[in-house]
Structure formats: structure tokens, C-alpha cells
């Protein structure tokens, strides 16, 4: 039987919005093969989707070889948080030279798990990073999305002063790494009508970096059992030629069961740990919601009671009174598991996910401990870059730098790609 996909599934597959899929449908770029027999939703045939499948999502194209680094590649990370990005990059084979973070509990988390890491605790604005110039290949940072004051049509470096993106750009300018990596929420694309992102890209261009077209990546395609989207911004220093390619999607996708039960992702069931609880009134409501359901699955009277004025407003509001299903990836985790309108209820028990369940869904190993009060632990995990996703980014960075340094060593890039690391560099020294 041919596999069929809904609009939402097609949007997930190609990392686009559902409206984009509707536009493809309206323009004839994609035609529905049939409609669902019960709700009449459009359904698309897998065969018809192949013409759009540039990344091999449907065909299951083999992933590139995950080569170890030709040499020690170093990273300076800003806004490091609980270490999800740094840990993933380390697992891929990169070396953390320094990590900057202002939150004391997050810094304690980093020190507890990696005593050998160089943690720069404090306000990034007060730290001089010029000491890392000529030592650093990559600067990374998940800077917060902040509005700028626009002095003219094109935002300049100094115009961003006072924002944390300015600090990211300042550090890149001071260190002059070969590659800079910014990651952010999907919403940055449309922030201030797109002007904020355009300003960021113009600033990176001004300080000497060629920025690739930013890419929204869905972590469910990168070994993460969670529907989380991240915007990736890659800048290459203009005086070098580095052929970077964004992470390719994986053939296998993981569910909440894979996150919390022994199996494909973890060797054991999730360890027992502390967690928050719902208020009695909320628990009484969520007791009526089935796995995979939300407020629309409540009896009509309870819908009106729980939603109040929102009941009469438009929109699906599918995150409200939501109970997860074992058979699907989790929705994006938030920083507070019990807050209204972003419930992520356990599939079987009427409670939020525990700290260790949160960490599993973000693909942190069970050995990674979180410091501070429970509210801080949830916030650290909810804000983190999923470890497996960060590892996939790390592999792409290593591949790009390997090709660059192989060419510097007078190796044929074609030979390098054909033979992976079976060939020896013709030069002994590969400097930064």
C-alpha cells in the first residue's frame, strides 16, 4: 500500500510551514492524491513528493561518512546554558576552548559535568575574548532574539550595541574564527518583519563573514524525539574557502517511547527523578484527556470551563491541555512544564515530565547532572540545544574544516572525499 501524508506531515518532512504546503497545492506544484475518508483532509502520495525531496528524506539516502577531525578543532561558545550544544559538539569530536555563561546555576551544571572545561562565568559584555584569537576555529552562540534600533536602511555593527547579538558579533570580530555559528528560534525569521535577521546578517557581512542562507532545521530529523525547530546561521570568514553543508536528515525518526524507554536511543528506562506536579484543578481536567489528545477531547462543558474566553476565539490552540502519546515525538519542551497553554502531560500518568524525562527528550545522557533548584533545572533543560542535534551540527563542521585543511596541506579535495581519512596529509603542520 502506498504511503500517504497529511499537510502537517509534509510540512514536517520538508521543514516548511503548513501554509507553504497549501501554496504548493494551490499552484499545482504538489497535488493531493486523495482525501481522508472521514475528515476530507488532503492526503499526498509518497511518490508525488519525490520531486520535492532534495535532501533524501523519503529515499533514505545514505548519510555522509562521519570523519574524525584531521586536527584539533577548537570552539568558543557564548550563552552556553546547561551545555547541550557544547556536549554535542564534543561528542562529534570538537574541543571546547571556552564557554561563556551568566547564569550561576548553569555554570554550576557545566562545572559539575565537565571540570576540565574553561567556564567564563559572568556578563559576556565584560569579558575580553581577544586572547582566543588565532587559537579558535569556531565561535558558536544561541543569542536571544532582541529588537534593534534602526538608524537607517542597513543596520551597522554599532547600531546593534546593547543587544546580546552585538556581543556575539563583537566576539566573532575579536577572535576571527574560520566559522561562526548562530542558533535561534524559528521566530527570528519574522521578528520585526524580518528586519532583525536582515540586520544580523548585514553585521556579520560587515565584520568579514559570508553568511549562508539561514536554514530552519527540525530536530526530529536529527535523532531527537521532539518536534523542536531551530534556526541555524552559518558564517564563513571571507578570506577562506570552506564548503559547508547543513546537516542531512536521518532516515529513522524517534518517538517519546524511544526517549523514555530502553531501546533505540537509550539502553535503560529513564531513571526516577524529581518533578513538578499539576494543581488539583488542572489534574482533574487532564485526567479526561486521552494520549495524543488536547482540550478539544474534553466533554463540552469542561472545554468551556477550562478555556474560558479562549473557547470562543479562533485557532486550534493544540498545545493546551495536551497529553503526549508514546507513539509520536514530544512537542517542543518549554522552560516550565506545568504552565497553562503549553502542557506536555505524561502519556499514562497525569503529571508533567520529570527532570530526567525532560533531559531524555533533549537527548542528554543520564549521567549529565543539573544544578540549582528544580525550577532552574527545568529552565536549563528547556532552553538547551538537544545534544544529538548539536552532534549532527558538529559532524558537518568537522567535515567542512577537514576539507579546508586537507586543501591547505596540498591534498586533492577529490582524493580526500574519495578516501576519507585513509590518506596522509603531505604537510605535517596544519595551522589555524
Q: How would you describe the overall organization of this protein?
A:
This protein has 432 residues and is an alpha/beta fold. The chain folds into three domains: 4-52, Multidrug-efflux Transporter Regulator, Chain: A, Domain 2 (Orthogonal Bundle), CATH 1.10.1660; 74-253 and 387-419, Rossmann fold (3-Layer(aba) Sandwich); 266-382, Alpha-Beta Complex (DNA Methylase, Chain A, domain 2). 30% of the residues lie in helices and 12% in strands. Strand 2 (34-35) and strand 3 form a beta hairpin. The longest helix is centred in the last third of the chain and has 22 residues, at 387-408. It is globular. It starts with a strand and ends in a 13-residue tail after the last helix.
Short description:
The protein has 432 residues and is α/β, with parallel strands linked by helices. Helices cover 30% and strands 12% of the residues.
Amino acid at each position: 500500500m502506498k504511503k500517504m501524508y497529511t499537510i502537517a506531515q509534509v510540512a514536517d518532512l520538508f521543514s516548511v510551514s503548513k501554509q507553504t504546503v497549501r501554496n504548493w497545492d494551490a499552484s499545482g506544484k504538489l497535488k493531493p492524491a486523495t482525501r481522508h475518508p472521514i475528515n476530507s483532509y488532503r492526503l499526498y502520495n509518497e511518490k508525488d513528493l519525490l520531486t520535492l525531496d532534495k535532501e533524501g528524506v523519503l529515499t533514505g539516502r545514505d548519510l555522509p561518512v562521519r570523519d574524525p577531525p584531521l586536527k584539533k578543532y577548537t570552539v568558543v561558545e557564548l550563552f552556553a546554558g546547561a551545555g547541550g550544544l557544547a556536549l554535542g559538539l564534543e561528542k562529534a569530536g570538537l574541543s571546547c576552548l571556552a564557554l561563556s555563561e551568566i547564569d550561576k546555576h548553569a555554570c554550576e551544571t557545566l562545572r559539575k559535568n565537565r571540570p576540565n572545561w574553561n567556564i567564563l562565568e559572568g556578563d559576556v559584555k565584560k569579558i575580553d575574548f581577544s586572547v582566543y584569537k588565532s587559537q579558535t576555529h569556531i565561535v558558536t552562540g544561541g543569542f536571544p532574539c532582541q529588537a534593534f534600533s534602526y538608524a537607517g536602511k542597513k543596520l551597522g555593527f554599532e547600531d546593534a550595541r546593547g543587544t546580546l547579538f552585538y556581543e556575539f558579533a563583537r566576539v566573532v570580530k575579536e577572535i576571527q574564527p574560520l566559522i561562526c555559528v548562530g542558533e535561534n528560534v524559528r521566530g527570528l525569521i519574522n521578528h520585526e518583519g524580518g528586519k532583525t535577521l536582515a540586520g544580523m546578517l548585514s553585521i556579520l557581512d560587515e565584520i568579514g563573514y559570508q553568511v549562508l542562507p539561514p536554514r530552519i532545521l527540525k530536530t526530529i530529523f536529527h535523532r531527537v524525539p521532539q518536534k523542536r525547530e531551530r534556526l541555524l546561521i552559518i558564517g564563513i570568514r571571507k578570506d577562506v574557502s570552506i564548503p559547508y553543508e547543513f546537516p542531512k536528515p536521518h532516515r529513522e525518526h524517534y518517538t517519546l517511547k524511544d526517549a523514555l524507554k530502553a531501546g533505540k536511543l537509550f539502553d535503560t528506562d529513564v531513571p526516577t527523578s524529581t518533578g513538578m506536579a499539576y494543581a488539583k484543578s488542572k489534574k482533574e481536567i487532564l485526567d479526561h484527556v486521552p494520549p495524543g489528545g488536547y482540550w478539544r477531547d474534553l466533554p463540552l462543558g469542561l472545554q468551556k470551563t477550562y478555556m474560558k474566553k479562549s473557547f470562543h476565539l479562533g485557532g486550534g490552540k493544540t498545545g493546551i491541555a495536551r497529553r503526549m502519546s508514546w507513539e509520536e515525538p514530544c512537542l517542543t519542551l518549554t522552560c516550565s512544564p506545568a504552565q497553562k497553554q503549553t502542557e506536555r502531560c505524561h502519556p499514562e500518568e497525569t503529571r508533567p515530565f520529570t527532570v530526567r524525562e525532560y533531559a531524555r527528550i533533549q537527548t542528554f545522557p543520564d549521567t549529565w547532572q543539573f544544578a540549582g533548584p528544580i525550577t532552574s533545572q527545568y529552565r536549563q533543560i528547556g532552553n538547551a540545544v538537544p545534544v544529538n542535534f548539536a552532534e549532527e551540527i558538529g559532524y558537518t563542521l568537522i567535515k567542512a574544516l577537514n576539507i579546508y585543511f586537507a586543501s591547505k596541506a596540498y591534498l586533492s579535495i577529490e582524493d580526500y572525499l574519495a578516501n576519507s581519512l585513509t590518506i596522509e596529509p603531505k604537510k605535517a603542520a596544519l595551522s589555524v
